[in-house]
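With this grant's support, we have paired protein sequences with C-alpha cells. One protein thus recorded is set out beneath this paragraph:

_____
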Amino acid sequence: MSTGTDPLASLAELPGVPEAVAEVRKAVDRLYGHRVMRRRAGEVTSEAAIRGARASAALDGADWPLEEIRRRTDFGGDAEARTVGGALRISAEAGQLLGVWRHSPLQVLARLHLLAVGDADPSAGRPRRAGEQAGPLFPVELAAAEGFDKPVEGVELPPAPGAEEVAARLDQLSHLLASRAEGAANGAPALVTAAVVHGELLALRPFASHNGVIARAAQRIVLIAEGLDPKAICPAEVGLAELGTASYRDALAGYLSGTGDGMARWIRHCGEALRLGVRESTAVCEAMQRGMV
C-alpha cells in the first residue's frame, strides 16, 4: 500500500487491522451486490437511517423500540424523546452535508450539534468554552453523575481535555480531512479514517452535550465521503449497540491510550460494528425480497 503523506496510513498495518479492513470491504461489497439494491436502494438507505438513529440514541440512554420510533410524531417531550429526535434529525441530514464536510468538517460538526440539541439551547452549534465541562458519554456515566446507584461498566475513562486543547486538535483533524478530500493523502482505508474521526471526537468531547451521537454521525459521513458506504446503508451504530456499551468503553480506552495495540483494538471494534450493521441491512434486504417489507 502506498502511504503517501497520510499520517493515518501506518495505522492500517497494526495487528489485525488489515484483516478487519478486508472483512469489512467484503461484507459491504456483498450487501451492495444484493439484488434488492438494484430496485429499492433508496428504501434500504431510509431503513438504515432510522435503525442507525435508534441505535445511536440507545447508546445515549434512550433505548426505544423501533416501532415506537416509527409511530411517534412528537419528539419534544422528555429528555429521552429529545435524544431520539436529535438522533433522527442527524441521521436524516448527515448524507446531505458531504459537500460542506469536504472543505469544512468543523462547520458540519457544529450543524450536527445544532440538530442534536435544537436551536433553543444557547450552546447549540459551538464547541465548549474555557471552564465548560463535557457531559457524560455513556448512560452509566450519566446515571452516576445524577446520583443513581448504578455502577459504571468497563474501564474508567479520563476527563475530556480543556477548550484550548480541543480547539487545537479539532483544527488538526480538520486539516487532515481536508487533505484527504483534496487527494493529497490517500494511504489509509476508509475504515481506519472513520474510526480515527469517531475516536478523536469521543476523546475530545468538543461540545457540552451529545458528543456520542455526533461522533457516530461523523463516522458515518466519513464512510460515505470516502466511498466505502456511498449510499449510507451500513448502520455501524446498530453494531455498536449490539456489542454493548462496556465493549464500546473498553475499545475507546484503547484509542485514548495512544498505543499501537490500543489503536488496533479500537479500529477492529469499529470494523466489527460496521459488519454487524451490514448484517442488519442484509436482513432488511432479505425481508424486502420476501415481500415482508
Summary: The radius of gyration is 18 Å. The chain has one domain: 9-289. The chain is about 65% helix and 0% strand. The chain has a mean pLDDT of 90.
